[in-house]
């Protein structure tokens, strides 16, 4: 099948105008989503590789797949002999490979809706020397050969209640006039697996707001909600032509929406810069304002191509930060540019926003709002942060209930010594009639979560991995091929859920038999890094790139490391991975972009993976908060982290002699908080188990 697909693609490449020397097949959909719908899994269809991150390149004679360190083992197992694995960080990047290996004047095709501006421009820079060209295909060539491509799903759009969103659409529009569509409009959907988002685009000005979505997804109630909030709904396919109108300053609301625009304009003191009649005379004053389009580099390349590049201001949007922050004030402010107008002699804050649903956006600066140059925009929404904390408490209770159940099952079915005792398996007691698999136990974990208030589904496919499978960093078990649980092997589970009040993500690694000294040493090194990062105190202005090393130092001491970042952002009933922006904790250069600020959420998840043997990862969600330090050097302000994930760390996997007193003290305090916080959600037997799992560790 893979060979037939490649043959068909190469035939289309040869007959394309112009003929293509190479075809890029990204993982992303038209909204640059991390997780995509079944019909958008083009790279998976072409290559057979099912990981969430990667890029395929097809030439006349070769087929290559790039992916990062999380998926090296998985890709080796899934790629056929027709494909060559390119390891990111070890092999040449895709743009360097294309520039070096494709001929002069080569034509490289890509669907421009599936690639970001930053990525496309990076490729074009690499192509410059040999005059190679990036060609935007008129359609998606993979779709033409994918005869069994799943049909589009029509899933309803729902309004996210104010009790969970914390702010009304009216308030959000008035204060900032834009964030991200799902966050701004307080809407959610199920168009993307594991992420409660809607396939949609938006154009938002200070006076108008447009939503581009399939109308079949909107009930009469949701349509009325949009109308009441001054949002004009247009067909999903109209966004391309409307962006072209936006670029030429010809985009206007429908006649029914113009009254709303005028009311908003009057309320905010906005003028459009066109044919404005003054009060002093009857003449018409022609305002000449140089329109700019501010484009975030992660915006879709297809929409960017509709704009006049001479009027594009390309840089990271400060509005992404407002979504990352659960509050925004003078100590955690972001700044928007204030452009000076010689005509008015005042600073003008100019907005006119074009954005897409998931974290990419561009906005045009051509409507005017008077504002002092030293004014920052403040944002306060404690509802989202409180909801996130509450969701993690319920989720922690589900994880504890799962561990209680799994501990009992492992002892009864396999004769394991269990969660607390580290001894050999009693093979005489094994019950051969029953068995547990990576899939069956992850399904049970989902059952526990589903019983909790406000549960809406998983936040990503559960990573349930035994022994060697744990070394596949983003392993995804399949019912037909998954492994059976083994009491003599490590078990890693990385999972999370979507609740109406928050999104969760947690990882624990456990052993139900007798761990080896090597396994305990590795687990303890990971735990020490996890504690070291979580206990960090750092000055205002510190990025996650600086902090990443804190989680690695204990591993480095033993010559160990891991091939993934240490922390990503968490959405508020949105995407579980906000790791590509604006903030993250990682060795990757992107982690230098945005400093960590109070109320940001970020994960703390170091690990160690030994090919063919086991994997270890520990993960909590943290909230950045102001730190109470003895001094305040430079009057910068200092920050620290608050853990909001609650589940025990396994005592028998720790080599306590390797822990310092401060680490033991932290573990004892954390476990004490686990008992107190989770007690209301557990029954008597579950609570007894948790008490035993969180007994204080002696120094």
UniProtKB/TrEMBL annotation:
SUPFAM superfamilies tied to this protein: Creatinase/aminopeptidase, Creatinase/prolidase N-terminal domain
Which family would the database say this protein is a member of?
Belongs to the peptidase M24B family.
Domain spans labelled Creatinase N-terminal: 7-139
Q: Which species expresses this protein natively?
A: Penstemon smallii
**Taxonomic classification, please?**
Eukaryota, Viridiplantae, Streptophyta, Embryophyta, Tracheophyta
Ranges for domain Peptidase M24 C-terminal come to 638-697
> What's the protein called, per UniProt?
Xaa-Pro aminopeptidase
Q: Name one GO cellular component term.
A: cytoplasm
- A GO molecular-function annotation: hydrolase activity
